[in-house]
Amino acid sequence: MSVVSSRVSSVSSIIKATGLRSQLNKQCSRIQCLKLPKDIKSILYNFKAGSGIKEYEKLIHLLKEDATKDSDLAEFLSEARQCVSLLDAKYELFVQILLRIQWTTKSPEVISTYKLFLQDLVCMQTLYIKLVINSLTQLFKSVEDTTQNNAERKPGEFKDEDEKRLNHIHDILHKILEVVPMSSQVLLQSLASQFPYIKHGTYTHEIYIYALLQILNYAPQLRSDILSLIINRLTMLDVNIPRKETNDDEEDNVMEDCTNEIVDGDNPTTVNNDINKIKTVPLIVHTMDTCMDLFLKYMHEFCFENSALQIESLRILYIDVLRAFETVILPTHASQYVQYIMFYICSFKGIVAETFTDWLWRKVIDPNVAPVLRQSAVCYISSLLATASFISSGLVKLTMSKLITWIRNYISMQEYSKYVDDDTKPHAVFYSVCQAFFHLFIARHKEFVSSKNGMLFLQELDIPRIVTCRLNPLKICNTKIVHSFADITSTYQLAYCYTIIENNERNQLPIFGVKTHLPVLVSSFFPFESYTLQHSRQRIVSLFHSNTTNTDRSD
Q: How far apart are CA 151 and CA 49, in angstroms?
């Protein structure tokens, strides 16, 4: 439960406990005839003294109904500003009711006065900072119009009333951050707690992320934390999308398969949960698509001004996005789309792609990094260089040299170990690096075989030493990749792999009473192979290399 909702619950319990509910119900018919009192200070003083409980309860009820004229409310708020110094913890109910007022839809006079009241309140009564900020961030979320077809609204288009509401909220948040520096951490906590759940609609997610990105205009010190929060929540959306679910032609087949599995189940609760999941998948896909486009748009606008790249802005954004990549995206298994945030920023300038590749490589060769992260990092290297059109042949050549050198050094250390054939698990990183090299070689070999110097470079890689070593990477790596690699190396007489492949296949034939199944040590996850979100893909599809062998991507 969020802080605001828990506060609202406490309001109800307090009203019930003090016997207000029955009294307030009797007075409902007379609300429209009553005006807010002007002697607020005396009412508050008397309540604290214990002699003005009824007047205080009546005031709470009038504010709760929110049925007064704007002119009266503006006058009341002006008087309330004069009493802020009195509002200690005893008046928490009074403050809570004021924070529930729908002030963003009132007259300009009420809005202006309300902002000043909130500013005075957080300055003089710091105990209410969390309550005030929660009430403001909760207003970032718009009520989704379920009757409106998503296709009728273009991504990035927001309702006028929502834009106006956000402007008012940002105005007061900006002032609060200026006058109360400690409120920054409170704001970050509130933004995380108020973030829409997966089940919420696309528009609610989109406008909330839009509001968070607007905060960066006046609070750049929060950029890293807010971007990490957004990327974290996009990752949560991403992992809840079944593989290939975004392909419209396959969606019906996927749902049909899921439905057949559900029908075969025995647990009614599980059946209902699975059916609900099927129904929400298209919503999650659309939400992911829209929010990715919004985030990619922000990245481009932050780094480019009048179509000119701003190097310092690019440097700042790269550092912030890289931090989120390291803590959120890299450890996530088989995400489909969120990693393209890193892909997109690498396309802005060649040096960024080189820097990112070098950062990943240092992860790969660091023995202190968890093996699963080292494996994931080398997959990112191979996939980026294999598919991105903005990657130069020079970077591909340099990276292939690094990969092959590391592989050869590893072989030299392990070749004569008497335990090398016993257990392959300790060599999982080695096999991942080998597969990354095979994959990159398959994707970009044409850039080298067309020239004498290129062929000389490939020959100097000494590929036969890799494929014939006792560690036998051709046995462990992905079969499809291995066969493609064998075809190409045979065509250009760089290595002959067929004999080893055939021998591996014979050794894997089932023998009665003997387990011959190989453990899965190497993931076939290449993160930049396919992007099928229909709207946001327009920013990505032109960045793919024309020579890529990926068949999942549709244009």
A: 59
